[in-house]
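notes to self, project folder thing:

trying the whole complex as one job this time. last attempt i did each chain seperately and stitching them together was a nightmare. two parts in total, labels are on each line so i dont mix them up again. if this works i'll redo the older ones the same way
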Amino acid sequence: AQSVTQLGSHVSVSEGALVLLRCNYSSSVPPYLFWYVQYPNQGLQLLLKYTSAATLVKGINGFEAEFKKSETSFHLTKPSAHMRDAAEYFCAVSSNNNDMRFGAGTRLTVKP
Amino acid sequence: GAVVSQHPSWVICKSGTSVKIECRSLDFQATTMFWYRQFPKQSLMLMATSNEGSKATYEQGVEKDKFLINHASLTLSTLTVTSAHPEDSSFYICSASTPWVTDTQYFGPGTRLTVL
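result (full assembly):
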C-alpha cells in the first residue's frame, strides 16, 4: 500500500521568504509523486509531478520539488513566497495513476 | 487543454432526496474517471474509479447502492447520491485520465453538496 505523510498541517511564511512544504512517501514500487494546490472552494491544480525522470522537478508558479529516494521525501519549495501562494497544498502518490493517495494537506499562509 | 468540468458547482437538497452530479471532460476522451470526497479541512478520499462502459470499482467502506456512478461515455460520468442525509454533505471532486497522457489525473472544480 502506498501513502504520503505531510509534516505540518499549517505553514506560515512572510512574503518573500522561502517556502518549504514537507512530504514523505511510502511505496513498495517506484512511485509517481505529485503536488497539487487547492484554492478555497475549487478543485485541484497540478503543480508538478515526478515520474522517474529527473529528480529535481520544476513546476508552475515557481515551485519545484526534489525526489530523494534515500529519504523517501518529495518536499516542495519556492524561493520567494507571494501572497497569491496562500492555499492548501496536497502531496500525492500513485503507482499507476489509478490508485492515487493524498496526504492530509498543508495550509500555507503568507504574511505581508 | 485537459479541462474537466462539474455540474452543478453547488447544490442544496432536503434529506431523503437524490442528487446527481455530472463530471465532463471537455477536450479529451476520459477512459477512466475518479470520484473523491473531501470533508472540511480534510484531504481527498477516493470513493470510486470508473472505466467507460464498465461498472465502477468502489473503495472499501463506500456504499455502492448509495453512491451510484455511471460512466456511459468517454466524456461523461455521473455520481448520484441517493437518499441523501446531512452526513453526506461534502465537497465532491471528480478527476479524469486518458491513456494518451500517462500518470496524470485532471481534476474538476468540485461540487459542494449540502443536505438539510
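what i see at first glance: Chain A has a mean pLDDT of 91.
need to look closer tmrw
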